[in-house]
Amino acid sequence: MAALEEEFTLSSVVLSAGPEGLLGVEQSDKTDQFLVTDSGRTVILYKVKAIGLGAPRLPSRPFLSAELELKFLTASERDRGEGLAESRLGLLGTLSEVSDQKPLGSWSVKQGQIITCPAVCNFQTGEYVVVHDNKVLRIWNNEDVNLDKVFKATLSAEVYRILSVQGTEPLVLFKEGAVRGLEALLADPQQKIETVISDEEVIKWTKFFVVFRHPVLIFITEKHGNYFAYVQMFNSRILTKYTLLLGQDENSVIKSFTASVDRKFISLMSLSSDGCIYETLIPIRPADPEKNQSLVKSLLLKAVVSGNARNGVALTALDQDHVAVLGSPLAASKECLSVWNIKFQTLQTSKELPQGTSGQLWYYGEHLFMLHGKSLTVIPYKCEVSSLAGALGKLKHSQDPGTHVVSHFVNWETPQGCGLGFQNSEQSRRILRRRKIEVSLQPEVPPSKQLLSTIMKDSEKHIEVEVRKFLALKQTPDFHTVIGDTVTGLLERCKAEPSFYPRNCLMQLIQTHVLSYSLCPDLMEIALKKKDVQLLQLCLQQFPDIPESVTCACLKIFLSIGDDSLQETDVNMESVFDYSINSVHDEKMEEQTEILQNGFNPEEDKCNNCDQELNKKPQDETKESTSCPVVQKRAALLNAILHSAYSETFLLPHLKDIPAQHITLFLKYLYFLYLKCSENATMTLPGIHPPTLNQIMDWICLLLDANFTVVVMMPEAKRLLINLYKLVKSQISVYSELNKIEVSFRELQKLNQEKNNRGLYSIEVLELF
Questions:
Q1: Which among 403, 420, 350, 416 has a CA at the least distance from the CA of 379?
Q2: I want to staple 395 with a disulfide (CB 3.0 to 4.6 A). Which of 41, 240, 389, 763 is the partner?
Q3: Averaged pLDDT score across all residues of the chain
Q4: DSSP label at 33?
């Protein structure tokens, strides 16, 4: 279980923090020392020591607020001389004995210069590195006082960030996407820096890992609302680019990124503008590094913060199972820091921040850093090993308060068996060699078999993670077979356990373009029972061999499901255009419907009864004919039906089983689509993949052929049938006129072929009768 302890203030006033907050907080070469860089000119080194629960507290904040402000030595003070700075540091030493938070040093660039990326520590040398004015790099140590007198290197390109972790040299990431090691860059500061990212692509976030003792860098870029991930492997010099697909809600904006890493994947988590946390698994060793691959995100936590948060929000991973979120849980609530267990989908703890934050969050070791009001605040936290009892807050501690628990950790790489009762080291070596031989003799289980064993017993969430990991691996020759077996196993478990329904896994497997209806007929059967319209829509779009009976069953559900249920469902809206029509356009469209349709004047129509009926229609029915009769999500589902393949012979009997009121609704929607097609010369609908005019007309004919005797007896369908009659009448007239024009053009072509002997100038008069 995770717990947040009582916070303490590192500094009561953050000078030069700016409206966007601090540039960063980075760890020094000592675990209790941190570099704080403001957005102006100053870098300060702090020693942070959390105050124990039993230790005496600080006096009240108003009493010490004036003195604590002295902890930040401003750039102007350094310009006035070192005497004032030394006197202030003396006073700070007195205060630090009370608070245990010690500023060990402060460095500032000159007036007119500005620090542009956070200062970091070179863990190999113990020196500090910072960049000011985008291109000027400075290196110094604790003994240096004036940054103007330390090592300086002017680079040839602008720097985005310097990244440093234990065990390797710092890396320099340039704004154009190129990466250099610090030592190689210092050897030739003016070396040419190549451009990696495209024009207008901007780096938004970056993270540096060490995996198997090899550096791995990931950075995220954004261009016109699209996000891309670049992964740089420095042991093989491979740079791989991925496109991050936003899923159904393509209008969402990603507010914050964080990441964790294991042996095979980088787990990239993002906090979106809808308040949800999503996860994208990025393989460390890509199958095809040269190819730009696409990655789909999956929902990890829903509605952890308000989508209308006034201030910034932040997200950071604490370990493999916990994340910290900074933001307002509700639109009207105060901001708070919360810790979530992503393995069990539970909120572990939260702490309200009444003075507000800047939307920035850093963590190192067991400390969280953030701006709370005008103070840089530190909150210690503890995360235990994730378990279901701990996630639910029901973990029982049976030890007495006075007892101490001693944990023994055995390193199997050493010959000693500390605490295990081995008599001598030679015996432990023999046992160790025997263990290694036994492990080496065990065959490695292929990922496909691991996946098939997982789906039979594990939870839906764990299965979803394993499926995503398997799909991210390089495809093997048996990939199609494994996908089919996986779906079959999931469906068999769905039948055996009615509460088990891994829809997210099924949708991921369908999107591999490997499955078909004949390969897994139970899939759509279960989706029909669950009335899962999103999964049914995806099947209609992906499966080419769906029987007509199943297509009609889908149509029944799409027409009968309530609008309220549709609003809560995610549906692919690519085939739907904007149905909003202004009133002026409505009037023109209605006038066109009554007076002129495709060159046909209804006044010439000899059906007087039809004209009289149309002239009597009320105003509200006029509006109905020019507005979509169904909501947009239902329209998207019906468009999937229009795109599906069918045989008219096998489809007609099943269409007769659909209720008459649903048939009427579908006909109204098809008539509306036809009117939309008539608005432009190309007779096409806007959108990415809209229905075609032929599909619309074919389905109108199918529905009328199957249900005309029923529909004609319905009073509410009378006006629709009259409109459809006039539609057909107008088309007959249009084609008749086109045939006449075709004959005239044919005669003109003959005349042009006969008169080949023309001079340089001639006048010809052609009369058409």
A1: 350
A2: 389
A3: 77
A4: E
Query: How far is 283 from 161, CA to CA, in rounded Å?
Result: 24
Is residue 496 exposed (0-12), middle (13-18) or buried (19+ Cβ within 10 Å)?
A: exposed
Assess whether pLDDT exceeds 60 at residue 314: yes
Q: Work out whether strand 238-245 and strand 293-296 pair parallel, antiparallel, or are unpaired.
A: parallel
Q: Note the pLDDT tens digit of each residue in 652-681.
A: 999 999 998 999 999 999 989 988 888 877
Element spanning 590, H or E: helix 583-595
Query: For residue 82, which phi and psi values (nearest 5 degrees)?
Result: -80, -20
From the list 529, 530, 482, 483, the residue with the least C-alpha distance to 509 is 483
Q: What is the DSSP string of 493-537?
A: HHHH-TT---HHHHHHHHTTS---TTT-HHHHHHHHHHT-HHHHH
Give the pairing of strands 362-364 and 277-283: unpaired
Cβ count within 10 A of residue 528: 18
% of the chain surpassing 90 pLDDT: 28
* Token digits of residue 257: 């990124």
Report the interhelical angle of 479-496 vs 460-472 (nearest 10°): 170
Structure letter (DSSP) for residue 168: S
| CA angle at 691 for the pair 614 and 227, rounded to the nearest 5° | 130
* Residue (of 720, 686, 680) closest to 700 by Cα position: 720
pLDDT tens sequence across 596-614: 444 444 444 444 454 454 4
